[in-house]
Amino acid sequence: MLASLLLPTVVLAFRGGALLSADRAGVPDTAGATVRMPSDTLRAPADTAVRVTFGAFVDTYVAYDVGRPRTLDRAFTTQAARHAEFNVNLAHVEATLSAPRVRGRLAVQAGTSVQANYAAEPRVGQTSGGDLSRLLQEAYVGYEVRKGLWVDAGTFFSNVGLEAWASRDNATYTRSLVAEFSPYYSSGVRAIWQVTPALTVRADLVNGWQNVSESNEDKAVGARLDYAIGRNTTLSWYGLAGNEPGARLRLFNGVGIKRRLPHALELTAQVDLGREESPDSLGRSAPTRTWTGAMATLRWAMDPRTAVSARTEWYTDDDQVIVTTGVA
């Protein structure tokens, strides 16, 4: 049994020392998004304008776990990760580049969610591991190859799932199990193509399953399709495939839906399925191991700045491929 007491997340953006925005998070709202300011030092004609905008985000919390873990680390979550402790879940500062056919983002981050998610970064060799990579939420530059087709290289958010890294962009403060146990970030190259106003296609070539530092010479490939049906419904499919340490091949797929309903309701739901081929100690093929998860969230916007959300979820990993419980 688990109970949590969570402080409102606060988003702060400054310019010249003046407070521009202070807003509660955990309630997605365009008007309350992180404030970004164009640089006053970059001036160009409108058709060739180069803009650098800056933003900042702070997510603070205190959580109480009725299990009262002795180490104060809450199990099976990376968001609100500490028990009975005032702390910072996520804080970042960012600079975003926008120009004709060129774009980029650099965001530096810290917080307990960062510590938890980057703890498994592989360390192979002298210039490896999470010491540097955990600081970089995103660090990429992109080029528009043709109208609507962008190619980005660097570290960026992953192609899987329906929940975002920052708490304020989700219906609930904590993440679902399917979000926590699938990649939040990737490092490599991606192509994003706005095929039509309704269809977006993405393809990734990345190091692997949520790792900036490599653990082997193999790469992983990812894909995503998002299709909007009218103004109220978006269907998504996403997948990731690659060789992981101790396994010959890991395949991961998911489908999701986001739908606006009457009476200011919004539904988000997804189902994920993963499988892994793992050799035995002699290198021979062993039975395929699988895991599955699903979640559904219903959000009711009481007014433009206040909402109530509820989530139900299910997750099974009998072979303990992704989640290790120590209990068979």
Could you give a short description of this structure?
This protein has 328 residues and is mainly beta. Helix content is 4%, strand content 48%.
CATH class: Mainly Beta
Number of helices: 3
Q: Based on helices, strands and strand pairing, what is the structural class? A: mainly beta
The CATH architecture term is Beta Barrel
Under CATH, the topology is which? Porin
DSSP E strands, number: 16
Residue windows where pLDDT falls under 50 for at least 5 positions = 1-42
Molecular shape? globular
User: How is the largest sheet built, in terms of strand order?
Assistant: 3-4-5-6-7-8-9-10-11-12-13-14-15-16
Keywords:
Porin; mainly beta; 14-stranded antiparallel β-sheet; two-stranded antiparallel ribbon; 328 residues; disordered N terminus
Describe this entry's structure for a reader.
The chain is mainly beta. It has a single domain (10-316), classed as Beta Barrel (Porin). It is built from 3 helices and 16 strands. The protein has helices at residues 112-117, 130-133, 177-180, and strands at 10-15, 18-24, 37-38, 51-61, 87-99, 102-110, 136-146, 149-157, 185-194, 199-206, 220-229, 233-242, 249-261, 265-277, 289-303, 306-316. A hairpin with a 6-residue loop joins strand 12 and strand 13 (249-261). The protein is globular, with a radius of gyration of 20 Å. The protein starts with 9 loop residues before the first strand and ends in a 12-residue tail after the last strand. Residues 1-42 have low confidence and may be disordered.
